[in-house]
What does this fold into?
Amino acid sequence: MTDHAELIANFVAVVGATPEQAEFYLEANNWNIDTAMSNYYDEPNADIASRTARSEASIEQEDYSEIEDDLASPSMSSTAAGKRKATNAPPGGRKGGIATLRDFSKDGTDDESSEDEEGQNYFAGGEKSGVMLQGPPGKKKDTNDIVSSLLKKAAEAGSRPHPDDEDDEPPKATYFTGSGNRLGSDEIPSVVVPATESGEPQRLERAVRTLTFWRNGFSIEDGPLIAFNDPAGREILSAVDRGEAPLKVMNVQPGQSVDVRVARRESEDYVPPPKAPPKPFEGTGNRLGGLPSAGSSSSGNSGITPGSFPSSGGSNPTNVPAPLRVEVDPSLPTTSIQIRLADGSRMVAKFNHTHTVNDIRGYINASQVGEASRSYILQTTFPKTDLTDLSQTIKDAGLLNAVVLQRLL
It folds into this structure.
C-alpha cells in the first residue's frame, strides 16, 4: 500500500489530478504510472465520476443501472426525434419530376456517413474500473449502394410538385463585407477602413443537369463516360448523394442551384453524342503576300463583308500621278513583263526599255476597274525587292523579261 500511495502522490504531482483520478487511472493500468499518465492525457475531459470505484455493492448495482439507462436513452431519443420530424414534416414537399441537390441532402446522408466513419461505442467495467471501447468503423458505401440511393431519392422527388424560384433561399455573400483596420507603425497610426457599399449578391439562374446511368458507367449532360469503378467517378456520385454539385463536372458556379435529372438507361451501353458540325469561317482575311492596312484592322471598318479581302481607300502612296495610257513605240527596243496581280491573275504586257516603273502601275490601273484606288506596291520575285523609285526606267531597274508582283498595302 505504501508503494501505491507513493504512485498516487507522484501521479498527482505530475499531472495535477485529484487523488481519486490518480487512483482510478493507476488501477486501470495495473499501477503502471507511465501508461496511466498516457491514458490520462489521451482523455483529459473524460467523465471520471462515472468511472470511480464504489465500495458498496448496492452503489455498484445502482451505477450499472444508470449506465444501462444511458445506453438506452440515445435510441429512444432518436426514435422520438424521428417521430417528431415525421409529424412536423410539411405535407407539400417538392413539386415536379426533378430532384435537386437539396433533396439529396435532406435524407440523412450526413448522419449515415458519420455513423460509417465512426464505430459504435461500447462500455465495459469491472468491480473497480470502467472502460469505454470504440468499435471498428462501419462499412462504407460502395458504388452500387450510392447509385441505388440516388435512384431512390430521384424517384421520391419526382413524385412531388416542382418548387418555384421564390422558394429558394436568398443568395448569401461569400466574401467579407465589413470594415477593417490598416495596420500602422510607430510613426504612422492605424487607419480604420470603412466598409464599401456593395449591391446585393447576384442571384444565379438555376441550372439543370442530366445524370444518365448506363450499363458500363454514367455521364453528365453530353460529357464523357465515367466508369463505376473509377475512384473519381465514385467521388462524383458521393458528392451528388450528399447534395453537393462538383463545380467542374456540373459546370456551375459556387452557390448556384442545380436541378439534377436522373435518366436510367442501364440496359444500353454508352454511345458518344454526335459531334457538332464545324462552323464555316466568318471574318476577314488578307491576300497572300500582302499586309493588312491600318484601316482594315480598326473597329470602324464595318463595311467589310465576311470572307472578303480588306481594301484601302488610299491612292498612290508616293502621290506620283499614274499615266492614263501606255504607248509602246515599235521602233524602239521592247520587252515583255509578266505581272502577277494580288488576286492571283496574271498579265503579260509589252513595254519599251525607256518606260518607267510608274508606267507599269499605269498599265495595271487601266487593266481593271478600281485598281487606281487601291494602295499597293510592285516587287520583283527573286531577289524580292520593292520598286519604290517610280521614275526609274525598266532597263535600269533590271525588269527586262522579268516578273513583277503586286503587293497590297
About this structure: The two ends are 109 Å apart (CA to CA).
